[in-house]
Amino acid sequence: MTALTTPTTTSATVPQPASAERTATPRRFLMCPPTYFDVVYAINPWMDLGVPVDAGRALAQWEHLRATYEAHGHHVEVIDPVPGLPDMVYAANGGVVLGGRALAARFTYPERRPEGIAYEAWFAGAGDGVVSLGQAAEQNEGEGDLLLVGDVMLAGTGFRTSRAAHAEVAALLGVEVVTLELVDPRYYHLDTALAVLDGGPSPLVAYLPEAFSPASQAVLAERYPDAIVATPEDAAVLGLNAVSDGLHVFLTDRATGMHARLRERGFEPVGVDLSELLKGGGSVKCCTLELRPALAAPLSQEARA
Ligand code: ARG
Q1: Is the dihedral of CA 299, 293, 170, 150 positive or negative?
Q2: Pick among 3.75.10.10, 3.40.50.2000, 3.40.50.300, 1.10.3470.10: CATH of 18-295
Q3: Which one of 19, 116, 201, 280 has the lowest number of neighbouring Cβ atoms within 10 Å?
Q4: 152-157 and 176-181: which strand pairing?
Q5: Which residue's CA is the nearest one to ligand 1's atom 8?
Q6: Do 238 and 228 contact (CB within 8 A), yes or no?
Q7: Which of 34, 169, 159, 186 is nearest to 95 (CA)?
């Protein structure tokens, strides 16, 4: 894996954007194989009971995503799938892990509720710097609606995760939470409407403005004046349901406009085919939960002073 540096023209008079240099950092992900994946209930507009799912194909596509992460230097942990939980493949919804502390989800729909218990059990046994805080008390669909950008947690609401859950996350994980209201049922989770591309000193996101209420659009425009504004076409193939390591952006191969925008900003888009999992209303990010470890060492006296 080589870090790519975007060529910039240097000039004494024109300041260059500090964000032009992109670097990949290795991540630790949790994924769940789609062994029992199917569409047997419809809890979002993508799910059509009349369209059959090819489970073998879903598994092959998922294996390819996992291998792609590993080929780019990322570590993938796997949780055992549970029979009867067809949406468990969407691991992003299992919870949120920050500073090694894992808060498991509490799902909106009864069909998915047992997943919260399965993910909580995984966090409790994970070791390796992950400590379980148990299951959220409030309605909370994990990283489906909770996206960390630097030290700020963007939090979606309107369809799944509640505002009360945002307050719970802020209190339990000790992070600033910014509430964003989703208004389009096709973009029912924040991770279908917004992608975190860079969480560093010059944070960068991509999003579909019309998926958000006017007030939330204003919040996003103010915080991220530099953001990539997605087209309805790219959003409609879940092109915003992406995972970035700071350089490589893993996303559906169908979002060709987004691939071009990413390249313009110095990222390397890595396209994958997750067409079977799209039938459940999810893509790359939905299948991926980031395990963010605790800081390696406590702050030194000097740093604390
Ligand atoms: N069928 C699932 C649901 O409606 C899809 C979840 C997709 N996950 C995500 N992180 N957006 O809950």
Answers
A1: positive
A2: 3.75.10.10
A3: 201
A4: parallel
A5: 286
A6: no
A7: 169
Residues 6+ away with beta carbon under 8 Å from 202: 17, 18, 19, 226
Domain ranges of the chain: 18-295
What are the backbone angles phi and psi of residue 167, rounded to the nearest 5°?
Answer: -65, -40
Q: How confident is the model at residue 297 (pLDDT cuts 50, 70, 90)?
A: very low
Report pLDDT digits (tens) over 246-290: 999 999 999 999 999 999 999 999 999 999 999 999 999 999 999
221 has pLDDT over 80: yes
The residue annotated as part of the active site, out of 189, 248, 259, 287, is 189
Closest approach atom of ligand 1 to CA 281: 5
Sorting pLDDT into bands at 50, 70 and 90, what band is 20?
A: low
Q: Taking 90 as the threshold, does the pLDDT of residue 173 lie above it? A: yes
Catalytic annotation present for 189? yes
pLDDT at 12: 39
Closest residue CA from atom 7 of ligand 1: 282
- Minimal CA–CA distance to 77: which of 145, 15, 136, 125? 125
Query: Which residues have C-beta atoms less than 6 Å from ligand 1?
Result: 43-44, 47, 87, 90, 92-93, 112, 144, 189, 191-192, 280-282, 286
Within a 13 Å sphere around the CA of 152, how many CA atoms are in the beta-carbon half?
18
Catalytic residue among 32, 74, 259, 286: 286
What are the C-alpha distances in Å from 271 to residues 13, 68, 261, 284? 37, 10, 14, 10
